[in-house]
């Protein structure tokens, strides 16, 4: 069996073991909030408080209405929270599952899918706050808002190849994990989350050059403004196509070394 066939078989076996990585993801959440009073409600509470403070402070510096800016920040930060958490968790997907990797014969994609699902479950709670915020949407609803659904599905595709690339590389090169955390902190400030690109040509250019802007806009644009961000979709589609190819290549070339690296 060649390396590519073996890699594809790993993914096929892992998808067939959905109950396993689903329960592993649930156990991760239980462990994270074990013995707390509010449990996973802390995800909603912390997100809502963060957005409220940011809107209160930064809302004084923009010309947009409070309703528009509040929704702009809520949607943007909600989407960013998932993107950032997915990048950081992708780096540690194998290291976090070290005991399972060394002690069992479970195919490695199980641990990648576990990380993806864990973040999807957390994001589902954040989506509740985002949905509540949409009640105050300043513009009329249109059919374009449904484009947010395929946008969220694109996030799922991105999450899979992202973990397939970062998990083995960060297991091999531990400094990469810390580098990615630093990069994501910097990217937060150059992504239109707390600022609106139309405020100035410079900000608009920064947003245009930042590929993460496209990932935010394919969901926020339809929901907030009812727009069809064709340019953003082209960027996301290209990134996902390249990412899927690199993810498969990375997994195929590293799968035999993971046990030595973790």
How is this structure best described in words?
- This protein is mainly α and 262 residues long.
- The radius of gyration is 19 Å and the shape is globular.
- It contains twelve helices and no strands.
- The mean pLDDT is 90.
- Helix 7 (148-172) runs parallel beside helix 11 (230-254).
Order of helices and strands: HHHHHHHHHHHH
Low-confidence stretches: none
Calculate the terminal CA-CA distance, rounded to whole Å: 25 Å
The largest sheet is: none
What is the percentage of strand-forming residues? under 5%
> What oligomeric state is this?
single chain
Mean pLDDT: 90
Radius of gyration: 19 Å
Q: Structural class, please? A: mainly alpha
The outline comes out as globular
Number of helices in the DSSP assignment: 12
Strand elements, count: 0
Helix content: over 70%
Topology (elements, then pairings):
Elements: H1 3-16, H2 18-32, H3 41-58, H4 66-96, H5 98-103, H6 109-133, H7 148-172, H8 175-190, H9 201-209, H10 211-225, H11 230-254, H12 258-261
List keywords for this structure.
single chain; mainly alpha; globular; 12 helices
Write a concise synopsis of the structure shown.
It contains twelve helices and no strands.
């Amino acid at each position: 069996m060649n390396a590519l066939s073996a890699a594809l078989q790993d993914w096929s076996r892992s998808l067939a073991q959905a109950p396993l990585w689903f329960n592993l993801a649930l156990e991760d959440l239980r462990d994270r909030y074990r013995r707390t009073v509010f449990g996973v409600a802390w995800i909603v509470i912390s997100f809502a408080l963060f957005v409220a403070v940011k809107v209160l402070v930064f809302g004084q510096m923009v010309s947009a209405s409070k309703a528009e800016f509040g929704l702009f920040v809520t949607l943007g930060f909600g989407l960013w929270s998932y993107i950032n958490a997915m990048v950081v968790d992708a780096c540690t997907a194998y290291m976090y599952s070290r005991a399972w990797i060394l002690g069992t014969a479970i195919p490695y994609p199980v641990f990648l899918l576990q990380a993806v699902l864990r973040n999807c479950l957390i994001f589902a709670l954040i989506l509740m706050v985002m949905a509540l915020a949409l009640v105050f949407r300043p513009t009329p609803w249109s059919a374009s808002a449904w484009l947010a659904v395929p946008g969220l599905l694109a996030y799922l595709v991105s999450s899979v190849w992202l973990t397939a690339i970062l998990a083995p590389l960060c297991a091999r090169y531990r400094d990469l994990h810390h580098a990615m955390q630093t990069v994501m902190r910097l990217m937060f400030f150059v992504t239109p989350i707390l600022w609106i690109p139309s405020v100035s040509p410079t900000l608009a250019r920064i947003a245009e050059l930042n590929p993460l802007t496209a990932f935010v806009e394919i969901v926020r644009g339809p929901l907030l403004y009812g727009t069809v961000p064709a340019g953003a979709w082209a960027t996301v589609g290209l990134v996902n196509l390249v990412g899927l190819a690199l993810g498969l290549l990375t997994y195929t070339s590293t799968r035999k070394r993971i046990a030595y690296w973790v």
